[in-house]
Each structure stands twice: as C-alpha cells, then as structure tokens.
Amino acid sequence: MTKDNHRQQFPALANKAYFNYGGQGPLPEPALDAIYQAYKRVQLGGPFSAEVGAWVVQEAMLTRRAIASELTVPPETIALTEDVTVGCNIALWGIDWKAGDHLLISDCEHPGIVASVMELQRRFNIEVSVCPLAATLNEGDPVAVIADSLGPNTRLLVISHILWNTGQVLPLAEIVKVCHEPPLTPPCQGGGQEEFSLVQGDGQANLSLIQGGVQDELPAKKPKVRVLVDAAQSVGVLPLNLIESGVDFYAFTGHKWWCGPEGLGGLYVSAEALADLHPVFIGWRGIVTDANAKVLGWKPGSQRYEIATSAYPLYAGLRSAIALQHEWGTIEERYAEICRLSKYLWQRLSELPDVECLRKSAPEAGLVSFRLTNGMPHKKLVDLLEKQGIMVRTILNPDCVRACVHYFTTEAEIDKLVGAIATQLV
Question: At 257, is the secondary structure helix, strand, or coil?
C-alpha cells in the first residue's frame, strides 16, 4: 500500500498536519467502522445475553493474541486495561511493600506515575530516589547511571522505554540485566574482625569473605530488582521482544502509536514476576468461582488483573488499527521510516537560527523536542501553529515543544511545520 493510499484511511489527516502521535494517534476509518459494527452486534444480540457474553470472551481472547504477537510474548501474559497509567498502577500497588524498601524512578517519568510513587512513599514509608537520566540524552551511559543508583534494598525500578519528553530510547535489555543480575554483595555479619577482598581467578571477579585466616565463598546474589516500564511511546514504534528483554512489567496503550481507540491498553507481566504481584483492584473478570459463585482464586496468567465491565467493542477497533499498520509494512520497516522522517525533521529544525533541538544527534524514535532561543513562549508558538492546522504540543519539563512523526508522516507535512515555525520567528 502506498503512503498516500494509507493516509486516506485516516480522516483526521485530511485537514491538518498532525504531529501529536505521542499524545494520541488518529483513528483509521476501518477501526471506526469495526467499533461501530461491534456496538451494533451487542445491541442486536442483547447487551446482557449468553450470545454476547460468549462473544465478549472471544473478543478479549483475540485481542490478547493480537497484542501478544506485537510484543512477542504469550497471550496469557497480557492483561487488558484502559491505558498506560492503569497498567503502571497495577504493578506499583501489587507489590508487597515494606517500610524501608527502595523504589528507583527516573527523572523523566510522566507526572501521573510520579504522583502514584509519591503516594506509595507516603502510605508504606518506602524510600524513593530519582535517577538522573535526563542528563544522558546526549552523553553519558544510562545503564551505568541506573546501576550506580541501585541499593541493597531496591525492589523496583520505574522507567520509560522511550522518554516521553525528550524521545531518548533507553537500552531496555541492558538495564534489565543490571537489575536482575546485580554484583555480589557481602552479607552483614557481626562478631570478629572481618574484611572483604576481591580475589581474581581466570579473569572472573570473585568476592570472598576472609575471616580468621579462612576464606569462605559468599552466598548467592541479592534478590532481583523488578523493572516496570512505561511503554506509552514505544509500543507501535519499536520492534519488541519482551521475553528476550527480560522485563518484568510493561504497561502500554493502544491509542497512541497504534492509532487505536482511547480507553484500551494493557499490561504485560512476565511469568516469573506474576507470582509476586498481587491483584489490587479486583473484579469478576479476574477471579475463578464454582457453580455456587464461591470464589476459588485468581484467573491464570495476567488476566487476574482485569476487573469488570469494559467497552468491549473497542477490542475490535484496536485489532483493526494494528492490522492496518501491517498492510503498510513490517514493524522493522515502519520503525526505519519513523527514524528516517524524524531525522529529516530534526535536520530541518536545526537549520532555523532561533531553534535548538534537545538532541545533538538524529533521533532514535518519532519524538523530536526543541526549544526556542528568541524568548517566544513555547505555548504561544503551539497555539499559533494550531490556528494554521498544524498540531504539536508543549512539554513543561524540560520546557520545550514536541513534534512527533509516524511512518505515514510526509516530508511535505514536515516542510509545512518548519516553514510555519520560521515565519513566526521572523
């Protein structure tokens, strides 16, 4: 399918230059129709009937399968939620927190997630520290920064795969490895004089305890630090294999880069992390009952985190939106096009005298953030552009403007955006 034919499937693109995919993607016509047909089927079958009940179960199963295929995970690891924030809250509140536990969060997370962490800290008296990842946008190693911020009592790291404010793509697999395989640490033991030495053998570091002239091997590593990822900006952009990444929790939405309906997202919970994550919000969709409605336990897999009645016709809309993207190309081809177009936008913006891109090199995803250096308020620029049918947004921290390009963005749209900015800066 050509890009022009593909774009015709999106009614929102007919009268505007759209650069807000990181906030919400436009719904394609087939997804709109799928949602309407699903609502109609519910009404014709009877909203509360055995027929529609069986249909709902089938729709949920098909949707989990479609999502799982995109993330390269088993369907039973997927819980259907409303959005990223709900998914993150399931993971945040499902951990059995104890006073003194440590949670590490980056300095580039969305305020909704930050607020949840603040409430966890207040309620459970846990320790919270902020990991300075913003400074690694153009130099530095985010993996090393995270490793240096982990402590012996760290239980959870909260990060985004693609930072929503700057567009930086974090090396997820490497970060997970640091959290799951921390270096050996000596146990705290009292009585007698103790010292620690690093014994080298065959090129491998081996930490041993020397006490009273006897060398004893230390016990095993400390427990893994779980990793929760806000995937608002990565699902629908990056080729993903969550099993290979080793990530524990991955919360995502369908209404951004997948261009699905708002109100439908999901949470991936790894098979290993499932045992330690307790349901907090509980409803009939997540439990098993007997013939007398006696509660027997949780549903197997991540379905235990689902709650109750949802807008089920949205399931068909999301599957349709995902399927439409495959008509244009593979996820690898779509990601390559996103990178090509974001580089083009970044280069064009860099040519403007009063514009400074936050990244000093070409973007690795579809988010391009920039600031004005002539004193014009960023909100004023965004408002002026919207009056011309050009949609971008402001970011408050760091103070900047963010423009997003998708694989079906055109060079002509980018030229229109850059030209309009240049006109306002004259």
Answer: coil
pLDDT digits (tens, 9 = 90+) for 281-296: 999 999 999 999 999 9
Question: What pLDDT score does 1 carry?
Answer: 78
Contact call for residues 231 and 84 (beta carbons, < 8 A): yes
Phi/psi for 50 (5° steps) reads: -60, -40
Distance CA 164, CA 306 (A): 26
Report pLDDT digits (tens) over 325-374: 999 999 999 999 999 999 999 999 999 999 999 999 999 999 999 999 99
pLDDT for 223: 82
How many C-beta atoms lie closer than 10 Å to residue 197's C-beta?
Answer: 10
Half-sphere exposure of 291 (CA within 13 A, CB side): 0
Residue 58 has pLDDT above 50, yes or no: yes
Residue 155 DSSP code: E
Radius of gyration over every alpha carbon of the chain, rounded to an integer in angstroms:
24
Say whether 103 sits in a helix, a strand or coil. strand
Q: Side-chain half-sphere of 393: how many Cα atoms within 13 Å? A: 17
Q: What is the mean pLDDT of residues 378-382?
A: 98
CA atoms within 13 A on the CB side of 311: 13
Alpha helices in 46-102 (DSSP H): 50-71, 84-94
What is the CB neighbour count within 10 angstroms for residue 130? Answer: 15
Whole-angstrom Cα distance, residue 261 to residue 253?
A: 9
Around Cβ 93, how many Cβ atoms within 10 Å? 18
- For the chain, report the end-to-end CA distance as a whole number of angstroms: 40
Distance set, CA 287 to CA 54, 86, 267, 279, 299 (Å): 17, 19, 17, 10, 5
Which tokens sit at 254? Answer: 């369908």
What's the pLDDT at 404?
98
CA distance 271 to 246: 10
36-74: b (≥16 Cβ within 10 Å) or e: eebbebbeeeeeeeeebeebbeebbeebbebbbebbebe
